[in-house]
Automatic annotation (TrEMBL):
Keyword annotations from UniProtKB, A to Z: FAD, Flavoprotein, Oxidoreductase
The protein, known as: FAD-binding domain-containing protein
FAD-binding PCMH-type domain location: 23-195
Gene3D superfamilies: 3.30.465.10, 3.40.462.20
UniProt keyword Thylakoid present: no
Any one GO molecular-function label of the UniProt entry: FAD binding
Transmembrane segments: none
Length: 459
């Protein structure tokens, strides 16, 4: 067990590495436990000394404050992955990251519900619901958990399963969607599915990608919305970004439409037909149709996973989105970059869409309570300002809130509640947008019961 206690004059990054530095200061200590006993010792020490424990996995959560009262429990040694083919399950250590899980599963001919960045901690991802490449077919990661092993704030180690009863049943449910800051996850077991059952071409994922100049925003918005609502196997995304250094139009606003299909090529071509027309390709800087290895499914998001700098994940879960709102959101994205040149290069926005059928069906299964509240929303939007000068925060916040307001126009007109995704809470998140009022009351009661002293920092 390694313990690092900063003296106070160190460079932050020599002590702790996080996806975003927002709200991150030197902690009281960083502990890298090797055993469950180490973790219990940390919990007991924090409890006795009015400190807060923050277990860290991939470090991708932007909503977690870290400071002089924090013991940062870096779970990186708890990175085991054990696939059980007979039981169609995978047991994942509390510090394991997505890329390792995908590799281990694919080696056994299966997959589980993993996020879109190889660097994501799987425990942290699971605790907020877990939205994966396969949400349209299977629902959420929290719908497919077989057991969770935790160290509680009182220092006990418990294994929770769908058969748990009483307070343990409530904790099991709460960890499924509203689980940040309740316990330390030692491991969790998720269901796996055979890759062969997807009937993929050559066991690979069909992908169609168009890269368009910013001037083609109206066309991009129409193309993206023409794919909605997608069938279960189709996962379309639309990204706002800027051409990277070294490319002919470096720094110019650009658009990427990418659609993965988790099924046979012929069905993929039918589902993504609007992206395959000559008109769609005509304005594209690049138009490709490729088959992607399962283990490389997250390669294109590697740049978005880099640690450091200041980032926030302003987001909205939507029922509908109109081409007009997308076009207006893009104009605001471009204007933010123009007014804040140091933030322009890396700031991005992304729309994703999936079929809600599987997640709604899962919610209807009796005795299957989770805290993923907004299963009827099939369009996700995120605006991520990414800057290096903290003075940019005000401008970033104003721009992001404006863009999110814009993409909500259709839902607002229908009188729908404004909601966001737990895994992408922003720093200082208003919790009423994440959970229902009733859910929030229940979660608060579970927190009081399991962690009355607030040993674990919780949103
Ligand atoms: C580039 C990027 C891509 C993303 N893609 C997706 C996606 O496809 N689907 C999706 O659902 N979400 C996605 N997210 C959101 C992500 O799932 C959440 O930010 C998640 O909380 C990150 O977990 P982490 O371990 O990487 O981060 P950390 O900051 O290390 O942890 C985040 C939270 O989880 C807690 N936590 C982590 N490990 C443990 C543990 N072992 N025990 C108890 N608590 C723990 C932390 O204490 C903290 O509260 C993405 C985020 C980014 C930045």
């Amino acid at each position: 067990c390694t313990v690092t206690i900063p003296k106070g004059d160190e460079d932050l990054h020599s002590i702790i590495s996080r996806w975003s530095d927002l709200g991150v200061k030197l902690p009281f200590a960083v502990v890298v436990p090797s055993t469950e006993e180490d973790i219990i010792a940390v919990i007991n020490f924090a409890s006795q000394n009015s400190l807060h424990v923050v277990p860290g996995g991939g470090g991708h959560g932007v909503f977690v404050p870290i400071g002089e009262k924090t013991i940062y429990l870096d779970m990186k040694n708890f990175n085991s992955v054990a696939v059980n083919k007979e039981e169609s399950s995978v047991t994942i250590g509390g510090g394991a990251v997505t890329g390792e899980i995908i590799k281990a599963c694919v080696a056994e001919g299966c997959y589980t519900l993993t996020g879109n960045s190889d660097a994501l901690g799987v425990a942290g991802y699971f605790l907020g619901g877990g939205n994966s490449f396969i949400t349209g077919l299977h629902g959420l990661a929290v719908d497919h958990v077989l057991s969770i092993r935790v160290a509680s704030a009182s220092g006990s180690v418990i294994t929770l399963t769908p058969s748990s009863t009483g307070a343990e049943a409530s904790l099991f449910s709460t960890l499924r969607g509203a689980g940040h800051g309740l316990t330390a996850i030692l491991s969790l077991t998720l269901r796996t599915f055979p890759i062969a059952a997807l009937s993929l071409p050559d066991s690979k994922i069909w992908n169609r990608k168009l890269i368009l100049p910013g001037t083609a925003i109206a066309q991009a918005a129409t193309l993206f919305t023409s794919l909605l609502p997608p069938p279960g196997p189709l996962l379309p995304v639309l990204i706002f970004g800027r051409a990277p250094p070294g490319t002919p139009a470096a720094g110019a606003p650009m658009l990427i439409i990418s659609a993965n299909y988790y099924g046979p090529s012929a069905s993929a071509e039918a589902a993504a037909a609007p992206l395959l027309t000559p008109e769609a390709s005509a304005t594209a800087i690049l138009a490709t149709t490729t088959l992607v290895d399962f283990t490389a499914m997250n390669a294109s998001s590697a740049a978005m996973s880099a640690h450091g700098g200041f980032k926030e994940t302003y987001n909205a879960m939507l029922a509908t989105i109109s081409p007009a709102s997308i076009t207006s959101a893009f104009a605001q994205f471009v204007a933010f970059g123009a007014a804040n040149p140091s933030a322009a290069a890396r700031t991005y926005a992304v729309f994703g869409a999936w079929s809600t059928g599987a997640q709604l069906a899962n919610a209807a299964i009796p005795n299957n309570k989770t805290y993923f509240a907004h299963r009827d929303r099939g369009v996700f939007f995120q605006f991520t300002p990414w800057y290096t000068d903290p003075a940019t925060r005000g401008a970033a916040d104003a721009a992001a809130r404006g863009v999110v307001r814009t993409v909500r126009e259709s839902d607002d007109a229908s009188g729908l509640e404004r909601v966001i995704f737990a895994n992408n809470m922003i720093f200082g998140q208003e919790m009423g947008e994440v959970y229902t009022r009733e859910g929030l009351e229940e979660v608060t009661a579970v927190k009081r019961e399991w962690d009355p002293k607030g040993v674990f920092w919780s949103p």
